[in-house]
Amino acid sequence: MVKSTKNNKYSILLPTYNEVENLPIIIWMIVKYMDQSNYNYEIIIIDDGSPDGTLDAAKQLQSIYGDSKIILKPREKKLGLGTAYIHGMKHATGNFILIMDADLSHHPKFIPEFIKLQEANNYDVVSGTRYLGNGGVSGWDFKRKLISRGANFLTQLLLRPGASDLTGSFRLYKKDVLQKLIESCVSKGYVFQMEMIVRARQMKYTIGEVPITFVDRVYGESKLGGSEIVQFSLALLHLFATT
Ligand SMILES: Nc1nc2c(ncn2[C@@H]2O[C@H](COP(=O)(O)OP(=O)(O)OP(=O)(O)O)[C@@H](O)[C@H]2O)c(=O)[nH]1
Ligand SMILES: [Mg+2]
Q1: Are 179 and 89 contacting, i.e. CB atoms less than 8 angstroms apart?
Q2: Contact, 44 vs 13, CB < 8 A?
Q3: Residue 151 in contact with ligand 1 by CB distance below 6 A
Q4: What are the residue boundaries of the Glycosyltransferase 2-like domain, all occurrences included (predicted)?
Q5: Ligand 1 centroid distance, CA of 1 (Å)
């Protein structure tokens, strides 16, 4: 029996803030890998009023690839990643949602691996992981590695979520599952990804993992600061106390 995947459609959510250099490359790569595998998909770009002209670049890309492939759902100003996903999901026509960063840290070559693993096991969620098998990070300094490892380690210790990469955001979800997860999540910012996967486990959703190599952004500025670290720790403690 050959399982048909023809009815599946993948909505790829790409939140952008000042990604004008990265956007054309990431779109080109997504199209390349999705077309190669013959998947049915759409790319939804949620730009939050980037001052660098990301939206203009997105419009040009839309005129190249067509408006059934590239969908633009911009917002006036920077409102944060959590709400960007919700906003994008509202307009998604696929039964699966793939979330990834637009800064080339997440390589589109992994998307078909996510999809194949999901199909093989009917997983509710497939998460990219830097902490299993061939996964890893490249271009991070010691401080950033320590923070990421530390956040993962602490969360593993306190919450035992049963997934190896908690702070990553490169993930594939069944759409209805993502909807329920987002509804149940209270945190905003960096910690949101961690809460999503912890809740997924609590709600007894099945999670598959694909080792990914994560490459630090080359263009644009990093936004991870001290306040994010504080927020993460507080949210972790909150989850620990309440779940
Ligand atoms: N729409 C929208 N996108 C955002 C916002 N903040 C970040 N992004 C995008 O979300 C993705 C992840 O953000 P990043 O800035 O790369 O966050 P990070 O990977 O934790 O940190 P660095 O890569 O080191 O900057 C990127 O595609 C950003 O352009 C926002 O407020 N709104
Ligand atoms: Mg990034």
Answers
A1: yes
A2: yes
A3: no
A4: 11-181
A5: 42
E strand segments, the chain: 9-16, 40-47, 70-72, 96-99, 125-129, 136-138, 171-174, 207-211, 213-215
Q: CATH number, domain at 170? A: 3.90.550.10
Atom of ligand 1 nearest to the CA of 144: 24
Q: What is the DSSP letter of 3?
A: P
Over residues 199-222, the mean pLDDT reads 88
CA distance 197 to 131: 15
**Domain count of the fold of the chain:** 1
Residue 160 has pLDDT above 80, yes or no: no
The residues, any chain, with a CB within 8 Å of residue 148's CB and separated by 6 or more, are 130, 137, 140, 167
Q: CA 47 to CA 149: how far, in whole Å?
A: 30
